[in-house]
Amino acid sequence: MGLDPLEHRNTVDPLAEPNLEISSNDQSRENSADHGVSRNTRTSPDSSGSFDYADKSSHTDGDSERGSSQGADSSQGQSNLGSKNYKEYVGRHLTSELLFSASIGNLKRIKRCLEKAGRSITSEPYQDYDLRAPLHIACADGSFAVVDYLVKNGVAINVVDRWGATPLEAAVFGNHWEIVKYIEQNGGRIKDRLTGTLVKLADSDLSSVAAPQMAANSSNNFLPTDAMAWEIPEEEIVDKEKVGSGAFGIVMKCKWRGTPVAIKQIHKHMAEDEIARVEFALELKVMRQLHHPNIVQFLGVMISSETNQVSIVSEFMQGGSLDQLFRSGKILSLCEAANMSLDCARGMAYLHGRVPLPVIHRDLKPGNLMLTRTGRLKIGDFGLSKTLSVRNKIPNSTVSQEPFVLTGETGSYRYMAPEVFRHEFYGTAVDVYAASMIFYQLFSGQQPFSNINPIQAARAVATQDARPPLHNGLMPKELMTLVRNMWSPIDKKRPTFFNVINYLDPIVEKLREEADNKKNNPGCGCVVS
Question: Is 239 among the catalytic positions?
Fold first, then answer.
């Protein structure tokens, strides 16, 4: 695996913080004997000389609502959100911003751009060169929250693109049947190519495709069509103990037929929320299709007899999450760290290699990597996952900062690939980049960009090609090469997870042999997988 050079770009973040300057030191990316830091010494990127941050204002970067353009556009006067120049800038780019935000499900950004431009979503069609409107894109990519917003705000529901397709047709081909049902209920139609008239889905050429799917999704609950095969009787779930919660729902440790399991349940007050239901159903749909030793195992669903709420039942991971392990301060041996990395690569290779629909996780981070009691790593939390269809190659998501009201960028900023932050189209390589940051922490014992907040880190990566420092003594050179390749700014140059497995396998095997040869520490605690 060769070394991919970092190619710097003149990139612009239209919502960047105006007073934050980041200077990148390219030499920090090269191996230097001047930095003799061991892999277990926890230092920050700033202290190692990787890059310097100068914040000339008293504001913090945590307020992601502020900011304006940098780079070439700064010279045009877009330093203040809401200024005349900024509104002119947004006006020139508003259509592309709205279409991209609709694709990734970023309702928060859609609202923000419209507000700063002083326009409404119905001020104009906002169509691209193929006459696709935001509603086309949101329907095709399954962004239910955006669809709901657009429809309720009165956009044309039967707008037609260059090929004669309406948003309803886009939802049908995108296999998003909840959206199909919603659009139909609000007057959505299919354009008949022969007569040029708008007809109901049942009367169109797509009726043979849609009818079976609509019948399968006709019930008003979360359950798949083969519910009987997956349903776990409520009385069999006992000894419930709450172990976690979030804005979306709660997680409980329970016992099922004597076996410890975890159940994830949507909050009661969100059970009737259409957007919440669709997002929960998406996770259920993804989890029930995945079967691999390095994927948290889906066991079934439980339906409450009192509230009719549906809970996802999965295996309980006794070791907690990798994030909890990092926060505990435990120092992993290199053998343990490499073995966990290999587990992660194997699980992700399975997801990306699924046929015919690969799965992109899009929120790969230590908090979503779970550990068994013996240290085996498994991938979990598929709330943001998206199957990459043949027709629609671009993934999407709705990540709620205020759940089911406002949505933000896909995934967690500290592990976010630069193309995602720059609002470019992306694919499976975003998971490879996220894994590079996780591998960096596993191999070095240092959190990437530990001295700055996550949004600053994502912006530095996307606009300055900043990366955490790599220097002699931080980690073995072969692992350093792997990490550097995985976080390449050019997504097509990043290795696939199958390549990562082939690269890591002999390294892990060698580490195990070396550990087994040490009389005082046979096996180093590694798990043979």
Answer: no
